Amino acid sequence: MKISSKLTQALSKALSSLKFPSKEISLSPPNNSEFGDLSTSLALTLTKDLNQNPIEIATMIVDNLKIPKNLIDEVTVTKPGFINFKISKKYYHEILNEILNVKKYGSGNSGKEKRANVEFVSANPTGPLTIGHGRNAVLGDCIANILEWNGYSVTREYYYNDAGRQMRILSQSVEARYFEQLGKKFLFPEDGYQGTYIKNIAQSVIDKYGNKLKKDDARFLSEAEQSIFNDIKKSLSTLNIIFDEFVNEKTFYETGEIDQLLAELKNKDLIYEKDGATWFKSTALGKEQDRVYIKKTGEPTYRVPDTAYHKNKIDRGYDLIVDIFGADHMDTYPDVLLALNALGISTDHIKVLLYQFVTLMRAGEKVKMSTRKANFVTLDELVDEVGADVVRYFFIMRGMNSHLNFDIDLAKDQSEKNPVYYLQYAHARICNILKHADSKKELTDLDYDTNLLNHSCEIELIKNLEKFPEIIKSVHNSLEPHIISTYLHETANRFHKFYAECHVLTEDTNLSMARIALVKGTKIVINNGLEILGISAPEKM
After folding, report:
1. Which of 10, 57, 140, 350 has the maximal Cβ count within 10 Å?
2. DSSP state of 273
3. Does 3.90.950.10 match the CATH number of domain 93-110+416-533?
4. Distance of alpha carbon 178 from the chain centroid
5. Alpha helices (runs of H) in 316-446, residue ranges in sequence order
């Protein structure tokens, strides 16, 4: 709250005028709301320094406080030495006016003239996106939105590998189904990719090339990759997720950036050969064991191209680089940063976010899944069943460090038990109220006077709306979208209470206009929050 910073400044000046020691000042709501809206234990922290009674210290501080007018109605001191502030209603009336008049209420400028890169999803094109990829996708898009709301110019980036063992198995799987559907002998690869999508790709290859392809034809892979990538992009578009850049791991081999990386590490004596493999000497940098960089087969581990890729991102001059990985990357991503640091490259502006995985629940039971056996629920299937808004909200309504149980039955519920429905219903109700107000001729051309808003439910709602800019600042630091979803749910809750207690359209036209202003302010905040989360704000439900 703005008022917290103003009170902190006033308290700090009071300490200075009294020549008291400087202390960290914190303000929070008192345990007993009758004492006021905010309270500080500042006097208690000064007891040892001054060897005085905290009540006396608190009283001296209050006597020296100079607080701007229209901010505080009352300042009191309570045992054992708390200073309490009762905020003026006029302050909240001014806040509502600000919400109504600011072009984009809640937006910040901490990222102004800065560039950010957010890498997310980054699934290799071996099959359709699953619910696990979905959480990554929605988190990444919301985080990009959060950064944009704080002033950053954001590049959404998708990094993938279309080579290596996974892709070879994909090619062999399509090849086997191709020959099978042509009635020829085939050998399905061990750990091959199963599922209808492989058969569909094989059929599309037949439709395009007939029976002309031979074993190990490169077109099995190229057709599979193109088909799967098209499906991935379509799946993401259903959630309104659009990428600015697609970066292929292969690029860094072709440009020589990987060879250059290995040469630079070798010059620092951090690369060596052993047992036919190439190793990164991470023990020389404080790790417990060295890491394989290139296997005996000549195939590099992910660390090599990923390190080159991150060096490339740093070279592109981003002020902030965000990576969104599953929890299984916990033990591996530090090696990338370690190698870059060893080359004298700062990684302080790289934020790695790890999210826990998703369990799909249906009728209270866990849905068992296996990607390789194609026994999984695709992201498309999930969106088809519960809708894009629900999918987006459910994927970010818990902190990313928490395991997420995606309850299908709750997601399909269209009652207030469903948090998405509850939130969107508040917005739809607001739109209905405003539409109704527009039809009232007696309200035409009237101005609103927010000073008429004095009911406790009105003030509590404005208090909640005021928090929005601080919420945006908070999520800029934490990059945790669930903070916004939690806040919006509380806002909807406050609005529903206000609606139940205070009739918006009354015989008192001036009071009606004031309450219409509050409804409009609530709509602005809910709209802005939903926009960041990428969730629609329906006018009817």
Report:
1. 140
2. E
3. no
4. 42
5. 333-342, 379-386, 388-396, 408-412, 419-438
Sheet with 245-248, strands from edge to edge, namely 245-248, 153-160, 115-119, 320-326, 350-355
Question: For the CA atoms of the chain, what is the radius of gyration?
Answer: 29
Please enumerate in sequence order all residues whose Cβ is within 8 A of that of 532, keeping only pairs 6 or more positions apart, or say none.
Answer: 142, 145, 146, 149, 472, 481, 484
pLDDT tens readout for residues 497-537 = 999 999 999 999 999 999 999 999 999 999 999 999 999 99
In this prediction, residues 454-481 reach a mean pLDDT of 96
Amino acid at 264: E
Give which of 483, 481, 472, 476 is closest to 320, Cα–Cα: 476
Residue 431 near residue 502, CB atoms below 8 Å: no
506 HSE (CA, 13 A, CB side): 13
List, for residues 341-371, the tens digit of each pLDDT value.
Answer: 999 999 999 999 999 999 999 999 888 766 5
Question: SS3 of 460, please?
Answer: helix
Strands 153-160 and 115-119: parallel
39 bridge partner residues? 28, 84
Q: Which two tokens stand for residue 90?
A: 């006029």
Please report, for residues 122, 309, 396, the alpha-carbon distance to residue 160 in angstroms, rounded to integers and kept in the order given: 5, 11, 24
Q: Which residues, other chains included, contact 539 with Cβ-Cβ below 8 Å and sequence gap of 6+?
A: 427, 428, 431, 432
- Residue 317's H or E segment, with its range, is none
Same fold, 2-87 and 93-110+416-533: no
Neighbour tally for 392: CB within 10 Å: 27
Q: How far apart are CA 192 and CA 203, in angstroms?
A: 17
Task: Write the CB contacts of 58 (distance below 8 Å, at least 6 apart in sequence).
Answer: 42, 43, 77, 81, 82, 83
CA dihedral 421, 427, 429, 432 (to 10 degrees): -140
Question: Computed from CA positions of residues 373, 408, 324, 222, in that sequence, does the dihedral angle turn out positive or negative?
Answer: positive
pTM: 0.92
3-state secondary structure of 208: helix
Domain boundaries, the chain: 2-87, 93-110+416-533, 115-158+242-355, 165-238
> Residue 29: which of 8, 5, 4 has the closest Cα?
4
Among residues 524, 472, 527, 526, the alpha carbon closest in space to that of 102 is found at 524
Rounded CA separation 395/392 (Å): 5
pLDDT at 38 over 70: yes
Third-level CATH fold of 2-87: Gyrase A; domain 2 (3.30.1360)
CATH topology of domain 115-158+242-355: Rossmann fold (3.40.50)
- Residue 457: count of CB within 10 angstroms of its CB: 18
- Interatomic CA distance for residues 146 and 446, integer angstroms: 37
> For the chain, how many residues are written?
541
